[in-house]
Each structure stands twice: as C-alpha cells, then as structure tokens.
Records
---
Amino acid sequence: MRRRPSDWRLKEMTAMSGSSLLGATPATVALDASLEAYARRFRERPGRAKPLSPQLRRLEAESIFIMREVAASFEKPVMLYSIGKDSSVMLHLALKAFWPSPPPFSFLHVDTTWKFSEMIVFRDLIMKKLGLNLLVHVNEEGLRRGISPYASGSGLHTQVMKTEGLRQALDAYGFDAAFGGARRDEEKSRAKERIFSFRSQSHGWDPKNQRPELWTLYNTRKAPGESIRVFPISNWTELDIWSYLAEEEIPIVPLYFSAQRPTIERGGQIFMVDDDRTPLAPGEAPQMRGVRFRTLGCYPLTAAVESPAADIDAVIAEMLTATTSERSGRLIDHDESGSMEKKKREGYF
Amino acid sequence: MTSAVTARHLASAEKGLLRFITCGSVDDGKSTLIGRLLYDTRLIFEDQLASLQVESARRGARGGGIDFSLLLDGLEAEREQGITIDVAYRFFATGRRKFIVADTPGHEQYTRNMATGASTADLAVILIDARKGVLVQTRRHTFINHLLGVPRIVLAVNKMDLVGYSQARFEEIVADYMAMAAGLGFKSVTPIPLSALEGENVIAPSALMPWWTGESLLGFLEEVEVEDARLASAMRFPVQWVNRPHLDFRGFSGTLASGALAPGDPVVVARSGKTSKIRAVVTADGDLERAEAGDAVTLVLEHEIDISRGDILCAPSARPTVARQFLSHVLWMHEEELQLGRPYLLKMGAQSVQAVVSAIRHRLDINTLSPAPAETLELNGMGLCEITTLQPVAFDPYRDNRETGAFILIDRFTHQTVAAGMVEASLQKATHVYSQAMDVAKPARSVLKGHKPAVLWFTGLSGAGKSTIASLVERRLSLMGAHTYSLDGDNMRQGLNKDLGFSDADRVENIRRIGEVARLFVDAGLIVTASFISPFRAERDMVRSLLEPGEFIEIFVDTPLSVAEQRDPKGLYRRARTGEIGNFTGISSPYEPPVDPEIRLLAGEGDPAVHAATVVEYLKMAGVLARAEDAPLDFSI
C-alpha cells in the first residue's frame, strides 16, 4: 500500500468519522471480519438460502459466459480492479465463474495515488483474504511531473494518471485482453461499445470500425500487440448492480454508506477531505456531514451526496427515487459533450 | 438481507426480461420513440435532461422542445451526420418488466448492424412513417428479422399526427404490410398506430385515436409472452473451458445452450460419439440437482473421456448433426466481398474451424425477396451458401436451435468478422453432394498404372529451387515408367489462371484452382508435381483437404531467405526491395512454413539431384511407387 501524507488534523477527523488510517478501530475490525467471512464462502461453499432472482441469474450467467470465453481464448488476460462496486461485482463473478479453480488471470489496479484511503485499505485486505495477487501500477513519470487533480485539473490528471497509466501497465505486462467494469447504461458512447471491444496496438478505439457482435459469438481474434477490452457487465444497470450486491451479500467499500465525514463545498458539490492534500481557503475548515458516494474514484474528483442511507437497503430505496444519474458526481464526464468518447478513443476504460 | 424495498424492486424483475430491437428507415423516428420510452418511464435523470435541453436548443429543435434522439445518438460522428450509425443498447424498466432495446440503424449500408441487434432479440418493432407507408427498407428489415429467427413483430405506424390520426390510412398500411409478411412464419405480427413525437399511444392509449381499441405500444410490450424456446429444445451443452484446478477435479465449464440436465443423465460427445454420465452439476453456490437452458455450470462426468473446448455434450437419444458440409444462409458484413474457396475461420459456439464457402446456391434480391444467381456476396448481401469445413462440426438447423445453428466467419488475416451464418441443413446426407460414382474408379486406374496417384506439393520462397528439384523428380519418375504431370506457377498463370493477379484474393483463388486441377489429375491416376510458393499454411491445408489421406505430399523446399535472395534467378527480389513489386513473399508479405511437412529439403545447399533422389526414396517408402496390388478392384458397373 502506498503511504500517504497525514497530519494531526486528518488523524483527528478520521478518528471522529470512524474511518481510520491508524490501525485497529471498530470499523476496521468489522471490515476484517466481513471480508474473512466472504473469503470463507468460496472455501466452504455453504450454498444459498434463497435462489437468486431470475433476472440477476440471467445477467450473472451471461457475465460468467463472457469471462470463460476470455479465459479459453487469450494467452494473458487481466481484470481491471478499481475497488468500486462494479469491480466488486466483477471480482465476485470471476470467483464464481471458474470455481473450484481460482480466476485464471491477474488483477490490476491503476492507482492514481488520489483514491480515498478507505478504498486502499479495502483493496489490500480483500485481495489478501481471497489469496489473490493484485498488481498495482502507478504512473511514476506522471508523479514526477507533479500531475495532480488540483494542480493539473481533472482532464490532464485523468489522462496521465489513469489512461496513460493503464496503457503503461498493459504494455509492461503484455496483457492481450483486459476486463473492464463499464456498463452500457452509464453513458451514451458506452451504450454502443461492444462486449469484446478491439483495440489497436496504441490502445485506440475506433467507434466507426467496430466488429459486428452477433448472438454470443464473440470474435477474439487479433494480431500480436493488439488487444481486446472485454466488458462482462455491459448489460447490467446500476439497479442490477445494487440488487446483486444485496442478494449476494458482497462486501463493498464503506464509503458507499452514509457516515459523518469531513467535507468541503466546491462549485455547489460536496467533496470529502480525505487527507491533507486538499487545498483549503484561509480560514476554511472541513465540516462534518452525513454523506455517502454513489460512485468512487479520485477523492478530489468524486462528489458526495448528503444522505442518511447507512445500509444497502436504504441505498436502493434512495436510488429508486433518484433524480440524477450516478455519473453526475464524476467531474471528468462534464468537460464537454462527447468527452467520454474522446477519452475512450485514447484508451480510457 | 431482503427488505421490502429490494423485494418490491425484484418483484418487477420476476416478470422477466424482454429484448427487442427497433428498425426503421431514416427519419422514421426510432431514436425519438426510444427517447420517449425512456423519458416517460422516468429513466432520464435531471442532469441528463439538462444537457439534453441545452443540446436541443443549440441544434434548434422544434419549438424549443426536447429532441429525444440526441439522448441516444452516442457517437460524435453520428451527431455530425444527424443519423444513427451503429447499434446502441438501452435499458429501461416498468413495474412489470425490464427491457433491453437495441437501437439499430435503418439505412441500407448498415444492414449488418440490424442483424446484430436481431440476433439476440425476442421481438422486433418495425417503424413505418404513416405518410410513406411500406418502403423497400421495410421489406428488408422484415426479412432480416425472419432470417435471424426473431419470432414476433410489432408494426409501429408512426407519425400518425401527420396524417390526421386517420384510421383509413393506418388500415391501408397494415394491409400492405400483412400481404408482404405473410408466409415468413412469424409467431405474431401486431400493428399499433402511434406518434412518438407527441407521445400518442406510446405509453397509454390515445384520446386522439378513439377508433383504436388495441393496446398502446408499452402496454403491449409489457404483456407479450416470450416463451423461452431454448428450454423446449434438445439438451446441448457446449464445453467452453476445461476446469482442472488439481488432479482430483476435472470439470467441463459451459452454459447450457438448450434443454435441461441433471446428475445421472447419460451424455454423449457429439463429435467423437464417446459416452458417459453426469456425476455432478457444480457451481460456486453448491451442486445443483438440475440445470436448464441459460445456466452457467460446470459438469463432472463419471468417466475419464477425451473432451475439450468446442465439444458439445448431448443426450444420446437426440444428437446434433456432425458434418463437414452444410447449407447455410449467409449475411455478408464486410467491405471486402466473399471469395469462394478462400479459407475463413468459422466460429460456431465454442468450435473454431477453418472453412470455405464452396458454392453460392443463390443470392437473395432484397427488393423482390427472389433468388438470383451470384458468384459473390457483397457487403450486406444475403445468400444461400454451401459451406465446407476442414474438420467436422456439430450443429443443429438454426430454425430448431438459435444457439447451436449460428456461426460467424472471421477473416484469417485481418481478423475482422466478415459474415454471419444460419445453418439450414446438413449436405452430407444429400446424395447429390457425393461425387458421381465413376465407371472406372480411382483404385482401378492405379492398378493399371502400376503406382498410386499423388500430389508432390513443393512449397518455399521464390528462388528456393522448387521447380528445379521438381523437374528432376519428374524426370526420374518418367524413367521408372510412372505417369506424371507437372503444374507450376508460370504455366498455370499463362492459361487457366491468366485472369488472376497478385492480390490476396487472387492468390487464394490461384491456389484453389490449382488444387482442383491437381485433384482431377490424381483422380486420373497421375503423380502430379506442383511447384508454388503457396505462402499460406491454410491454402496448402485446403488443397490437402481436397485429397485423400496419403495423396498430398508436402515438400518444404527450405532455403534461407538470404540464399534465395542471392540467387534471385528472375531479378524479382531486387525489384521487391526497391518497392517496384509489392506483396512479395519474404519481403513484404509473410511466408508461413509448414508445421509438419512430409519432406523437408534443406535446399540452401547441396546438389538438386540429391534432393530429387530423397523425394523418390520417400515415394517408395510411402508405397506410392510400389505396385498397388492390394488395392481393391472396383469395376462396379
């Protein structure tokens, strides 16, 4: 785990919020226990109390089919693990798809060094409990250039630390297929992405020259150096994800649930002060608010919502009456219309 | 962990999922209709709506309203052209059902996208502009849905506001359409009048069309039955991945394509005929007592039998067809047209084999839906074709099983998906496919000639010494009294193949014709020497597949590029190096060496006569030159 700067103010606040970097608090003990129980399920296979809903069973089977197809067709696949709820579902599906074998591919996290600290704690603990080897890649050259979301802006930060970082990692390890957790309901250009999406040697996506994808006959052929991005949860909606997390009792980062957290307001949106790197105006002090996150990314770029929803049922209840889309909290989507498509052409997931 | 909230949400999912596609001509209002469905089922969030309003205003949408199509046209290129160019998948749910909509483009050059959407659809919504009525495009869309086996059609007669919500106009269009769709075998065709722009009869019945007593579009989509045909079909379990974590566990992972299975059921491997019994149906949630179509499971069998990816497990009493030749509808999806005889990669379920389109029975004229003769299929062309595969494949006719009767063709060089196919029938039981039994059969000719027929296929770089060695071999064989004939690049290209150039396509056709000629000579009982660079493994394998085992003798004239280039007998390398000749094997085009040739001659050195003697020795050893007394006499006249 990367070490993060910290100071007295942060320590004080995290102690208050119950989300800690300081070792064993009641929260981390509970997390440890829940991840241990989760890992034990795959060892002991206790069986389900209640069958999975038909709709989710169909989506699950489709995703498993896709993952097996990749395992059988590529030499060196990798699953991108970004610690969020969609990644939690993907990881869970991968554990189920190949049981009793472990997932026959690596896991990779492209770390920007600006993730919420609770995400990193969760990441390292769940991988340890499951006995999986996670590769963590940081664009060191970007760090040397001093790229950060505050200094460089969201666009450049994402371009360098995420998109370029991802390309570096894919090239360095020579992965020929990479699973991503994108869903078609998230964004307009994603609605048109294939499940098996071909990428050139420079990782570019050519939306006008996509391979037709019929039935479940996925074309896995490519030349050396080219790669394929695979989106096994393409057909899931945000509601499907949450329902599945609930029915399958899959552990997720506690940031998805409401708690008192140190926050500031910027441009009408609420951000969490996750460590001392957040620039504060003279005299400005973070305020404790009851907030949660609908999506998790870099903390300076991911807005919180004020909400009392402290468990998964409450979250689903709020979502059923939600009036904004989940990506509205993602600053990188709003740079300009068509911006996601631009990022994707450059190799973003 | 199921609360009242989760339960309420999931209750809607219990009604199941409907996958449908929308098809229409340009400006029929497809995107507007889907936008309207999303909007009216509250699937558009405030932030999306806000950006939609800004965008609509910028583009000067009608009367300052919302242009719903902007919500859907995801790609910049499309927005610039103002048309939808690709397939987009949209999701919405009502209290009763979840929907996945494939939004597919209507204009002619993008038929392939429509077929893509139709391949997974339970139902198709075909839009018609009430002012224009049934168009050529409507016919095309209907036919593609028929071809792809979409069981149900909704005929959405849109823009009723522009014909004054006229019942007479609606009925006229419906009558036209029904006349056209009759005989295509849809389970149902349901006409519904509506106006997507005004929202009339989309979500709820319209007060402006009191004459309409049927349902609104959404009302119908929520209620229509989608019986899962896969459950009723015979059991098919395509093996996707062999699950072998350690020596004590060997399972076969896959998704049950059709039917159901349970522990204790007998199974047979379709291609090999090997049998066993299901011992356990394994999942991460525990072993199952039963699995049915659509379930992703891992099977453990009672016996250790040879099974790998691509095998299909089925019930011994209801097996798929296993064959190398079959008849299929083919939809061509690539700019580069179909080439008869060119090897493509055929992917059918988890099976991947080399295949050629060996003949086109006919092309379908989309306007008249009548068959017409054709020598190729171009982008968006459809035809009934004969397919021959290098190894046998297991399949069902597409109309019986969409899962095991569909395939795609992939170009072996560009790796593009070039075609989609739907199997009509096996060809191997049809007597006309077997070649005409001749009065004097091949073994008989062999007896008369005193040797077995064979093709000595010399492959290697230009300048490797193929023709030199081949002609020495032929001379020796003649002296021994063998009947021979020689084929080489130059004599073929001056005659039979003088219409061919050096493009990839022409090279493939060149080798295919040579293979067929060689086969005729072999049938006549001759030993044929053939000297061709033939750089691609697949083309050589294709010639091999035309002949019987033992008849094709691949001789790799293995001369290093540097030596061949130094020899450069025709000055070709020099011209290739300067770029004067393109696509030159070894320089600007690859050479794929044989993996396991019958003979490999290290011809960069040594006397060609010695290499020729090596070949003749091999022919004696292999029995080609021994008298063929043991061949059965077959004078069955």
Note: Chain A has two domains: 8-241+339-345, 254-334.
---
Amino acid sequence: MHEMGICQGILDASLDAAKAEGATRIKEIRISVGELTEVVEYALQFAFEALTPGTLAEGSVLLVNHIPAKSRCLQCGAEYEHDRFDSTCPSCGNPFSENIAGRELLIDSLEIDTGDEAPEDGE
Amino acid sequence: MEIDLSKRILDRNERLAEENRRLFEEKGVFVVDLMASPGAGKTSTILATIAALRDRYRIAVIEGDIASKVDAEKIKEHGIPAVQINTGGACHLESDMIQRAVSALDLEEIDLLIVENVGNLVCPTEFYLGEDAKVMILSVPEGHDKPYKYPAIFEIAEAVILNKYDTVGMFDFDEEEFRSVVRRLNHRAPVFAMSATKGDGVGAWAEWLALRIEDSKTSSSEE
C-alpha cells in the first residue's frame, strides 16, 4: 500500500504550488502514471479521498493519465508500445530492448480557483 | 486557472536520495539495496556476503523492518556495524530513513553498505534511496512464476539472486522458465543461483559485487 505515500507526494507538491499562486481551492490535479510502475489507480484514488479533506484539495478530482510501456529494439532500433510482459520487437522479433516509457510518476498540472477571478478593479 | 507543474511525484524522496548519493560518493561507500519477500533469505544473504567479502571490504548494514531489532542484532553478533530502521508499518524504505540511519554510521570507516529493504516485492521498486545498485532475491520455494506477478522488481534489479537453490529438487520450480522470463524483463541482470546458508554459489555473487565496487572506485577517480 505505497499508494498512500505516493499520494502524499502528489498532495504536498500540489498544495505548495497552489498556495504559491494564491489559490483558494484546487479543482483538479492531473498526473501521469506509467504502466510499468507498481501503482494501482484504485488505491491511489482511495488514498486521495482519505488525504484531501481539510486541505485546499478537498473535493477535487485526481485525473490519471496512463502512459503505455514503450521500448526501443536493441537490434533494429524500432520503437514500439507493448504490454507489461512481452517487449519482443514486433519488427524483427528480437526479445531485447531498452525501455523508453512507462515508468513515469509525474504531476502534470493543476486547475485552481484563486478567488480573484472576478473582474479585477483598481489596478 | 491552470498551473503547469511537470514535477516528479516522488520529488522529495528523489532529492533526498540524490543527497545520499553525493554523500556516498564523497565518502567512497558503495551501497547495495537488497529487496525480497519476507523469508526469502535477505539477512542470510547479507551474512554470507559479509563472510565472503569482509577480508576485502569494511562492511556495514542498514536493516529495514516494520518492527523489531532482531536482524540488526544478528549482524552485530558478527562484529559488523548495523543500524536498524523500524518503519512502523511502512512497507518500504525511503531516502529520509536512510539519511537518518547513515548519521549513526561512520562512513569514513565503510567501503560497502548493505541495505536490507522491508520484505516486499512491490513497494520498494518505486523508491530510489541513493544506492549504487538494487538487487533482488527470490527464493526457490516462492515459485518460478514470481516475475510474472511482480515484474517491476525484476525490471529494475541489477542482479537477481535465486536463493535456497539447494531445495530446487523439492519444489516444482522450473528454472529454465524462470531464467527466460527474467531475461525477457531485464536482459542485463545476471541470475546467481545460490544457497546463502550453505554457501554454495555465494562466490559468484560476491565476485560480481566486488567487481561493481571496484568499477565504481575507478569511475569516481576518473571524474
């Protein structure tokens, strides 16, 4: 259940960034999770619901963008997406490849309310 | 309003891990993180590694467990400095725990620091600690199908130890299948079949580790 720690990481970074922008509320947190990581979205959403109450992110949505596994063939150089267990090159059949995507754990962006989104006056 | 962050989720862990890395490099300490299920033989592997390499390197151990000091005490009985980390429920070690544990060791007096991660095949994979190499141990009784079930740990390991190899005839363990799946997931990682408690096969693993330690010395002196 390391999703709790990962979720805390998402929340800490998001809250810092949101406060720095003077946010009154976080509406959405968008993250990218590679398919080769051991992160389960269900557990992540569960942790998110447990950790957000009482913070600026209470009631916000955690939007997860899943990044497929991708490798580069060490023989012919082809780049291709593949499932978790078989990274055999579809072009030349070589089983050995270099992973190039699928291990990401990134916070991409936030959608926030700043409270002064009403027309500004007196500037 | 949208804020673009493009930040690593585990940024804090990774920043502290990089601090650990710099400290280890400065002090010339090679760090290996051992990951395995509970009962796979992590502590026995550490004891076997100590026996094989203690004449060549000054060794220390960090023991990660949810609770108890049993493992650190076992190591200390052999005259090796050991620090116990109790995670208090956390299923893996993180770099701040390593940072605290390291402060209790004299790094000037250490060449090889072995970190025993919490027994778990899932969680330790995402957490860089600042180590030179992650190594995973699978024991024969756990079954040859584990790389199918827990692929990430096999993908990131720089070497795989197949422990309790003396029992291979007693279990329905398909070694050929195991080696072929590991190779598909991670063609770089050598697989060392050994019995940590009986000593068979420990030599090859210890030689690999010694080679890695020597390589890291050469590459840091070239910088």
Note: Chain B has one domain: 16-218.
